[in-house]
From TrEMBL:
InterPro entries: DNase_TatD-rel_CS (IPR018228), Metal_Hydrolase (IPR032466), TatD-like (IPR001130), TatD/YcfH-like (IPR015991). GO terms for molecular function: hydrolase activity. It comes from Pseudogemmobacter faecipullorum. It holds the Pfam family TatD_DNase. This is TatD family hydrolase. It comes from the Bacteria. Belongs to the metallo-dependent hydrolases superfamily. TatD-type hydrolase family.
């Protein structure tokens, strides 16, 4: 098991937390400090993922208030019966802000809510259509739904091209291989640093480096040495340290590679930075 307890945080330039939830109540009144701690750990950019339409104005305001913060919106599969039904046209209408970088998270989760399977499939298809028509990528959530997920993603690609990241990847090797074959990305979360996650580390180690992102999914899934406590964007440095060891790279090399991957997948974030450099 790679040692993730003591990465050299000062040697991690341009890390990106590609998936966090700064709008969650866990972070109320503390976002400025979270962003400052992240920057001190080398995390210069982060994407806050909005999964509630009521929170979208707040997520946009966070992006507008912090240069390194970008945002998304999508209907989480666990919320499909709680959130308003939304069409691809409506999703695209919400996406025109310069710091809106992706649709999602969307996807399938049959672990907690198998009874909403059909509603989840309908919602995911609408998000895929929005990605196809807009050129913006998808942020995909998959849990206990590998077969259906592979099928629906592949069906979408037969209709029209789109890009996606399998966020917080913890599914099996078949879905990983299928996603990579489709040209998608895998995102490494704190799960990859857990002692019992060797299978997940093996999946990442076998994947092309140019298809890897890192994330926290904070406030969840804090990596060691913070496991069991609230996660936050600064801790992506610990997950990145595991990734660097898996690929036999220095921390700086892994940070640079995953940041370049982020820019390819999220061109609007890359363009925003270039336009202000």
């Amino acid at each position: 098991m790679p040692d993730a307890t003591s990465p050299d945080l000062t040697a991690l330039p341009e890390l990106v937390d590609s998936h966090c939830h700064l709008d969650f109540a866990d972070f109320n009144g503390e976002v400025d400090q979270l962003v400052a701690r992240a920057r001190a750990a080398g995390v210069t950019r982060m994407v806050t993922i909005c999964t509630r339409i009521a929170n979208l104005p707040y997520c946009q305001s966070l992006a507008e208030s912090h240069p390194g913060v970008f945002f998304t919106y999508g209907v989480h599969p666990l919320h499909v019966t709680e959130e308003p039904k939304i069409t691809a046209t409506e999703l695209i209408a919400l996406s025109h802000h310069e710091k809106f970088v992706a649709f999602g998270e969307t996807g399938l989760d049959f672990h907690y809510t198998p009874e909403t399977r059909e509603a989840q499939l309908i919602s995911l298809r609408e998000h895929i259509t929005a990605a196809q028509q807009s050129g913006l990528p998808l942020v995909i959530h998959a849990r206990n739904a590998d077969e259906d997920m592979e099928k629906i993603l592949a069906e979408g690609l037969k209709e029209a091209p789109y890009s996606a990241v399998m966020h917080c990847f913890s599914s099996g090797p078949r879905l990983a291989g299928a996603a990579l074959e489709m040209g998608f990305y895998l995102s490494m979360s704190g799960i990859a640093a857990f002692p019992k996650s060797q299978e997940i580390r093996d999946i990442f180690a076998a994947a092309p480096l140019e298809r890897i992102l890192v994330e926290t999914d904070s406030p969840y899934l804090a990596p060691p040495p913070h496991r069991g406590r609230r996660n936050e964007p600064a801790y992506v440095a610990h997950t990145a340290a595991v990734g660097a060891r898996l690929y036999g790279l220095s921390a700086a090399e892994f940070a640079r590679a995953t940041s370049e991957n982020f820019d390819r997948l999220f061109p609007r974030a890359a363009d925003w930075g270039r336009n202000r450099s």
